Fold these 2 entries.
Entry 1:
Amino acid sequence: MDWPTLRDTVASCRACALCESRTQTVFGCGNAQADWMIVGEAPGEKEDLLGEPFVGKAGHLLDAMLRAIDLTRQSAPPAQQVYIANTLKCRPPANRNPMPIELTRCEPYLVRQVELVRPRIILAMGRFAVQALLRSSEPIGRLRGRVHRYLDVPLVVTYHPAYLLRNPPDKARAWDDLCLAKRVVKAHRVERE
Ligand code: URA
């Protein structure tokens, strides 16, 4: 599937029951050739209304985290502008946790997004995103600090910005995760030069 077909397929998806309660699907946004791909969990209330990922409070913190490492979601070249997607394209009612069946049905869309973007790094944010991508039930605390792979793309795990809003002391750990991801991208660049 190319981008327009994928976008249309997601917009009309009825593969799980979340299609009944969504306002709209939240496909993802950013540079289609980005070096960095950010993968969150699922749209919340604001994202469901606006059709964009990470536009609420957690999104503001994500923007600040990106700014701290010279990245942005605004229009910029692929080395600076990230691509942002979620493991689920529809909002779970009342922001409940994603269900395994929903993650399974939705994953092919994310797989195709990763194949099309071919990022140099995936930053996976939050327990559900991380566990779904890595097929793991380990907590974030045990998965962060090393480089995993998803579809052969290096993947670094970090805390979800919504979690960081509730647990500010863990921001220092999230900063370490961003620095690790940055090192991975830099090493990859040097390798290709
Ligand atoms: N949390 C997520 O994981 N994704 C969003 O798009 C919004 C909040």
Entry 2:
Amino acid sequence: MSDIAQVIIIGSGPAGLTAAIYAARANLAPLVFEGLQPGGQLTITTEVENFPGFPEGIQGPELMEIMRKQAERFGSKHHFEYVDKVDLSKRPFEVFVGDTVHRSHALIIATGASAKWLDLEDEAKFQGRGLSTCATCDGFFFRDKEIFVVGGGDSAMEEANFLTRFASKVRLVHRRDSFRASKIMVDRALANPKIEVLYEKEIVRYLSDNGKTVTGARLRDTRTGEEMDSRIDGIFLAIGHTPNTAFLDGQIALDPGGYVLLNGPTGTSVEGVFACGDVADTRYRQAITAAGHGCQAAMDAEKWLEAQGAH
Ligand code: NAP
């Protein structure tokens, strides 16, 4: 049945695209669903300095573009569409994009993770109106403005540093008195004269003079509980990520945090379904580890298909 793909790959970050390169070179003609953010999180990060092979660093979107080209060169087909749901109860598996159903013998889930929000009142209303989770996308709008960056991990350090290219002042709001970020990233942020750290503070409310854009925030001291209002032109959240597994609708075993539980290096609780990258990684979450994991998933899928006699 020619309309059944050997393998469908859902996701287009380093994991999905590396899986596509390997699956395509194995002659599996993979179908890749790139989703609503083709290229994944790297397309909204700043310069990637730690991906081997790029001694001068490389922009995230460019890295993803060349990975896609490399996969296409070997015959992978890319759809810039969002997968709403899957049916893993029967084989071939079914992958739904709206009303259209695609079928495949094997499936690779590489849907990554998405930025977390604070879940405060008016959060949705202020998104893109002074409130953002993407410094690369929105930093430009804060030239000579004062902003908060929330978080104490590597992302917060990286975003705070990047935003000093535009902002006149960046205040790093962190709920504890020590950082989770790596020492080199913390040192770089602390050495930046435009960055000031507000330790043991959390945002409990977004404030707006005009009802439309963020013009301030209410901060609470996490030690004393004392609250104070502060004027600010913009707020960037860098407080971690949530794995994109909701579309699986309970058909695959997940850990309590919603990450895919792996059975072996890339296997899942459903035979023939593999997972790779941030969607299944609570520990490393790096572009290079996701890429390596994508390679493993494609090789495992290929071996599995071969054993099934489908390839
Ligand atoms: P992360 O390491 O999970 O850090 C999230 C930070 O946000 C933590 O400091 C956490 O505070 C804080 N936070 C979480 N929920 C919060 C809330 N509701 N209110 C206030 N603060 C909250 O996430 P990440 O920084 O995005 O990094 C994820 C992974 O990517 C890490 O492995 C990191 O090393 C990697 N990464 C690497 C680079 C690089 O090497 N260039 C750049 C970016 C990210 P607590 O510390 O109190 O929990």
